[in-house]
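check this one:
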Amino acid sequence: MTNQELIAALAKRMGWTQKQTSEVLESAVSIINNNLEESNSVNIQGFGLFETKKKGERISVNPVSKQRFLVPPKISLAFRPGQTIKDNLKKLEVNE
């Protein structure tokens, strides 16, 4: 689903214009981004938890040349789905 498809679906469900829905969605994403930039976690009930994790520096080895190098520390984003999503995914059948 693209951003435009999401906006269209939300607008239809809520009875708003696509412009209003787009502004609300942009505001929500901005609030989530600001909280994550400040290392605060964001828990959306029924959906999941967004949080930042700090990874320390480490030494890595190039498998071909056997050269060792230092990988600097970094902050990464982690998402843990809520129980509702986990339960819904378990109900889906895998079509292979």
